[in-house]
Amino acid sequence: MIYTFLLSCLVAATSCNRDSYTPSQGEDIKKSGDVTIYTTTGSRSLDFGKRFVDFSSKFNMSPNTITLDPAKKFQTMDGFGAAITGSTCYNLMKMSKEDRTKFLTETFSDKDGMGMNYIRIAIGCSDFSLSEYTCWDKQGKENFGMQMEETQYIIPVLKEILAINPSVKIMGSPWTPPKWMKVNNLTDLKPFDSWTSGQLNPKYYQDYGWYFVQWIQAMKKEGINIYSITVQNEPLNRKNSASLYMSWQEQQAFVKQSLGPQLKAANLSTKIYAFDHNYNYDDIADQTDYPVKIYNDPAAAAFFAGAAYHNYGGDKAELIDIHNQRPDKELVFTETSIGEWNDGRNLEKRLMEDMREVAIGTVNNWSKGVIVWNLMLDTEKGPNREGGCQTCYGAVDINKANYKNITRNSHYYIVGHLSSVVKSGATRIGTSGYTAEGLVYTAFQNTDGTYAVVLLNDSGDSRKITLADGKNHFSYDVPAKAVVSYRWTY
Q1: Can you name the residues that pair with 82 across neighbouring β-strands?
Q2: Does residue 18 register a pLDDT over 60?
Q3: CA torsion angle for 188, 289, 282, 340 (degrees, to 10)?
Q4: Residue 13 clears pLDDT 70, i.e. is over it
Q5: 3-class secondary structure, 125
Q6: Cα–Cα distance between 134 and 86 in angstroms, integer?
Q7: Which of 82, 76, 54, 27 is nearest to 397 (CA)?
Q8: Taking Cα atoms as reference points, which of 294, 290, 267 lies closest to residue 280?
């Protein structure tokens, strides 16, 4: 199993030989057991270490018992993963075929890896593409087509991932429409020849809806099914290197008049998610509750599965607020970044905060999935472009000198700790019992007859935690500053 070499790296992953781990003297590691456990500590003393424990035959007297309550059901889970950007694919394709297959297996295989199963890709370019482009840069329907970035990098990588895990779900998001569809504003309607900012000219609503349909169908011809789309990445952000301002009023009109009906006419079941931006709506007063305002038109609402969120402003409590207003609509978390600004390579700090705020935090606030930003960047934070993020790290960073040595950052672990035990179709369930400062957890019932729990211990002390499901119970010493994932058959 691949986890043998993931058990422990006492130094940074770039300098440790991951294949040379030997258990410390006297350490007894069980080869099997009733419960499978993965543990990562902020110090990397346990680096997605795999352990097994058995159910206890003793009467449970532990005051530190967390009891699962499967009768209390919340949302059904879609999955967890990262963005497969042009930059990510460029770095992956620079690796040797053997190393790339090994990494993608570790990441996406449900049997031999973390089982990540939800990824996000750009429709056209993103701010982490090799150039700025769309798939329809020249007017005339005959000019639509996949570009070099798709054909040489993104599609080949997606095919390799799907060969490893055919059940991976893919979300598509545009950063910009073709420039010829843009205007400076909706009053003057003057052509806006820029990748950055601008607004969608309403006279091109039907053309832009056609563009989405063509893109989905073109991917399908490559054997790549698009599970979901968002209408616009960060619609309130005018400043990204590739961007478009799209108010809730515009998004509602475009989907109601064009995108929704055209997907339906093409018999495409691809889910549409609204918004895809920050909890605080970038403090634009009339854009607050963006998705709810869209849903207030029943004809428009019928085309939307739900809404997507990022965490670059505001608080995850916004997810609860939106859920409470429209419990019939789904929520999914689609982007978060680490970088120089938030001490992105400090694993202990980021592992604790990202697990609490993003992984467990959004799921406990009704999110059906968690997708982080770039799966892989190089050690120079690239490839990146002017106008985009030049201070971002990837979920993993690959050494640009050899495209071989990989450092796994917090975002790789927070998604992997969910995807390794919580499978697509799982239902989040209730819990009761032990609580403590720095202890955050979430529980699930998988469709295959297993329970899953993901737990964060953000305290300075190890804690002996007992988990009980009404039939069985077991205990495990959770290290200080650690994340633990559990899975067992009930």
Answers
A1: 372
A2: no
A3: -140
A4: no
A5: coil
A6: 13
A7: 82
A8: 290
**pLDDT surpasses 50 at 2:** no
How many alpha carbons fall within 13 Å on the CB side of residue 211?
A: 28
Strand 463-468 relative to strand 450-457: parallel, antiparallel, unpaired? unpaired
Task: Report pTM.
Answer: 0.94
Strands 450-457 and 482-489, how do they pair? antiparallel
Q: For the purposes of burial, counting CB atoms within 10 Å of the CB of 480, is it exposed (0-12), middle (13-18) or buried (19 or more)?
A: middle
Residues making up the chain, counted from first to last: 490
The two structure tokens encoding residue 389: 């993020």
Q: Which pLDDT band holds residue 440 (cuts at 50, 70, 90)?
A: very high
The pLDDT of residue 36 is 98
DSSP 241-278: SS-----HHHHHHHIIIIIHHHHHHTT---EEEEEEEE
**Dist. CA 13–CA 405, nearest whole Å:** 8
Q: Which helix (H) or strand (E) holds 485?
A: strand 482-489
CA distance 427 to 489: 15
Phi and psi at 343, nearest 5°, equal: 55, 50
Q: What are phi and psi of 233, to 5 degrees?
A: -65, 130
Task: Look at the block and give the residue holding tokens 């938030």.
Answer: 342
Best CA proximity match to 334, nearest among 365, 294, 369: 369
Residue 354 CA neighbour count, 13 Å, CB half: 33
CA-to-CA distance for 10 and 119, rounded, in angstroms? 30
Q: Using CA of residue 292, residue 293, residue 299, residue 305, what is the dihedral sign?
A: negative
Contact 423, 446 (CB under 8 A): yes
